[in-house]
Design brief:
This protein is α/β, with parallel strands linked by helices and 697 residues long. Helix content is 48%, strand content 11%. It contains 28 helices and 19 strands. The strands form four sheets. An eight-stranded mixed beta sheet has the order 12-11-10-13-14-15-16-17, with helices on both faces. A six-stranded mixed beta sheet has the order 1-2-3-4-6-9, sandwiched between helices. Strands 5-7-8 form a three-stranded mixed beta sheet. Helix 1 packs parallel to helix 2 and helix 21 packs across helix 22. The chain is globular. The two termini are 40 Å apart. It binds (2S,3S)-3-hydroxy-2-methylbutanoyl-COA.
């Protein structure tokens, strides 16, 4: 027994309780406690059945991720679960909250499972660059069949208790008190004289089906969908062993494949992404007990794509929200846009008609600022022009109640200047959503120089409530994400002037793992938007800072990207699939001549260095200016807002993996060869010379 696992007997039932906050992770103490508790119950002649239950919000949510990469400590989880399954007395796992990863594997090694109706179960290891390493790839197929097991293990997505019950993963559902439900089930087993039912011995779900074909189909699907990912392929091979090998050898094969994943760099990057996403919500210098204002109602200024997407986030979280527009027709259009957007989710089957109506009922359209007098939080999402922002914030200052939070969704303008338009700059904060706002998880929470602590704490809390990954950032042009993407986009465009094609640049970036190429992304957001920002930059840049001119030429020719059907690529009517733009080569030739740039062959590796190192160098400047609290926050921003591959860990993690001395040396070369904009960030130079990492900061 240990202080995190206790054993007590209630009549003929041994009750084993895990209590290891916050999520009952299977750290060494829990593994030792489980092993000794099950052994003790097995040895106690009074015990006829065993109940496994957990304290706190959830059943076991997996192995202790913090232990990965550290020297393994015995007993390993495979040993513990095999012991549990081998027990001669029927054991019941009582699931509440989430039974995930090693937690579900422990439950699958118990002979029976019951779950509270609102529970979820799953094997999400693939999201950490791993695979279920304690029998999950061998036992789950024996319960749900190979097809469903492949879906659950390769996607890592949890299923509801109801579905788990339908599939036979859990034997019954209950509501209310955990232990009572567990004892009732165990006593029934005793009464009916039902003994152990070992999952590992079951084969009925493996027979009579062309499992090899299912595996081949999944392999082909993954090769297409995620060619760069390491662990999904190994998940498939492990499940394949469940029907090609006897259990013992299947478990061994699983261990081999697990070992390969454990040592893969992708695992380190994905575990980094897991923990840093949670770390990002911790704001340096903000006391844990900083009061948070109560946000029961919200308002959004502007019913365009962003405004409606933001309003939907509030409705999705059950918060009534008013959208303010300048006219009745604009108001009605905004409401229709919300209905149409929800309608697409209903069509896709990810939302019911009833839920659509319930959420729409929380969104109302208004045309008068006076209608916002009583809301707790207002977010402005109007055109990116300081004059327009001034009118809006002066009106909000006049009409909104004292204590209301006044937020701006600006993506690059000076929030301190916006706050100064009001008599209450302490109540002003930036809430920078990413398009489409109802889909993208990232939220940059912009802290103005006068933003008060409780407003910042409230903004972070509302971010979590809206199921966003909220990351605090400081005020500068483009904050963190956009400021870095300007440099990344600049280099992608320069590479076109130097001889690359959009297909080559974007192809290299997609192979690197980016969700979308840099130039396709520019076409999506609109070249006029990019150009407006670039022209504003031109005003501040000194002569030695050269800028590419391809966008200028495309815009001058009326090619603004997807919205005009032509940009870096061509888009057929109604299609978002980029095709080569036949007019581009001439434009590139003209740009190269104008810049005096000789066009030449460029390698994919060189393209990655020019684009990703531009992100890293600007990230280092952002860190030294304190615009981002920590390097990992930049990684969280890029993974959740800019399609940076989580399995590369984010730009700053990637830089550490490559080695800052290598990155710095290459950037110095670019500085000498290309120009002033490649001047290495002093922080990068310092860390490289000291042989340190961004992670050391
Ligand atoms: N190990 C260690 N710490 C964990 C943890 C884990 N498995 N899960 C959560 N935490 C920490 C987290 O960092 C945070 O810490 C706090 O708990 C609350 O988490 C052999 C190999 C369970 C759905 O992948 O998905 O089993 O920030 O903020 O939103 O096959 O946490 O407070 O210091 O996320 O309520 C598989 C991972 C492991 C599940 C709860 N399991 N966890 O969400 O809270 S691999 C997982 C989650 C494995 C075996 C293999 C979620 C949650 P802090 P939180 P939440």
């Amino acid at each position: 027994m240990s202080d995190v696992v206790t054993l007590e007997r209630q009549g003929a039932v041994a009750v084993i309780t895990v209590n290891n906050p916050p999520v009952n992770a299977l750290g060494i103490a829990v593994r030792l406690g489980l092993q000794s508790s099950f052994q003790a119950a097995e040895a106690d002649p009074e015990v006829k059945a065993i109940v496994l239950v957990c304290e706190g919000n959830t059943f076991i949510a997996g192995a202790d991720i913090k232990e990965f990469g550290k020297p393994p400590q015995a007993p390993g989880l495979p040993e513990v679960v095999n012991d549990i399954e081998a027990g001669s007395k029927p054991s019941v796992a009582v699931i509440h909250g989430t039974a995930l990863g090693g937690g579900l594997e422990v439950a699958l090694s118990c002979h029976y499972r019951i779950a509270r109706k609102d529970a979820k179960v799953g094997l999400p290891e693939v999201k950490l660059g791993l695979l279920p390493g304690a029998g999950g790839t061998q036992r789950l197929p024996r319960v749900v069949g190979v097809e469903k097991a492949l879906d659950m293990i390769v996607s890592g997505a949890p299923i509801s208790a109801t579905e788990a019950n339908e599939l036979g993963v859990v034997d019954s559902l209950f509501e209310g008190e955990l232990l009572a439900a567990g004892l009732k089930f165990a006593e029934q087993l005793i009464a009916e004289g039902r003994g152990p039912r070992r999952t590992g011995e079951r084969i009925d779900k493996l027979e009579g089906i062309d499992n090899a074909a299912l595996v081949a189909a999944k392999r082909a699907e993954i090769e297409k969908k995620a060619p760069g990912l390491f662990s999904p392929k190994r998940c498939i091979s492990a499940v394949e062993a469940s029907f090609t090998l006897p259990l013992e050898q299947g478990l061994e094969r699983e261990r081999e494949l697990f070992g390969e994943c454990l040592t893969s760099p992708q695992r380190a990057a994905l575990v980094h992404a897991f923990f840093t996403e949670r770390l990002a919500s911790k704001v340096d210098g903000l006391a844990k007990d900083t009061p948070v204002r109560d946000i029961k109602t919200a308002g959004v200024i502007g019913g365009g794509t962003m405004g409606v997407g933001i309003a939907m986030c509030f409705a999705n979280a059950g918060i009534p929200v008013k959208i303010l527009e300048i006219s009745d027709s604009a108001r009605d259009q905004a409401m229709q846009r919300a209905r149409d957007t929800y309608g697409m989710s209903v069509k896709r089957g990810s939302l019911t008609e009833a839920a659509l109506e319930k959420r729409l009922a929380l969104i109302s359209g208004v045309t008068d600022y006076a209608d916002l007098a009583d809301v707790d939080l207002v977010i402005e999402a109007v055109f990116e022009d300081m004059g327009v922002k001034q009118k809006v914030f002066e009106a909000l200052d006049t009409h909104c109640k004292p204590g209301a939070i006044l937020a701006s969704n600006t993506s690059s303008l000076d929030l301190n200047q916006i706050a100064a338009f009001t008599k209450r700059p302490g109540d002003v904060v930036g809430l920078h959503f990413f398009s489409p706002a109802n889909v993208m998880r990232l939220l940059e929470v912009v802290r103005g120089e006068k933003t008060s602590d409780d407003v910042l704490a409230t903004a972070m809390a509302i971010g979590k409530k809206l199921k966003k990954v909220a990351v605090p950032v400081g005020v500068c042009d483009g904050f963190v994400g956009n400021r870095m993407v300007f440099q990344y986009g600049r280099e992608a465009e320069f590479l076109l002037e130097e001889g690359a094609t959009p297909e080559q640049v974007d192809g290299a970036l997609r192979k690197f793992g980016m969700a979308m190429g840099a130039l396709a992304m520019r076409d999506l957001s609109g070249l006029d938007i990019g150009l407006a920002i670039r022209n504003r930059q031109r005003e501040t840049l000194t002569a030695e800072f050269k800028l590419p001119t391809v966008t200028d030429k495309l815009a001058a020719a009326g090619m603004l990207g997807q919205k005009t059907g032509k940009g870096f690529y061509l888009y057929e009517k109604g299609s978002r699939t980029p095709q080569p733009n036949p007019e581009l080569p001439a434009i590139l030739d003209a740009a190269s001549k104008e810049q005096g740039t000789e066009r030449r062959e460029l390698s994919d590796e060189y393209i990655i260095e020019r684009t990703i190192y531009a992100l890293i160098n600007e990230g280092a400047k952002i860190l030294e200016e304190g615009i981002a609290q920590r390097a990992s926050d930049i990684d969280v921003i890029y993974i959740n807002g800019y399609g940076f591959p989580a399995y590369q860990g984010g730009p700053m993690f990637y830089a550490d993996a490559v080695g800052l001395d290598t990155v710095y040396a290459r950037i110095r070369e670019f500085h000498e060869q290309l120009g002033a904009w490649w001047k290495p960030a002093p922080l990068l130079e310092k860390l490289a010379k000291e042989g340190r990492k961004f992670a050391d900061l």
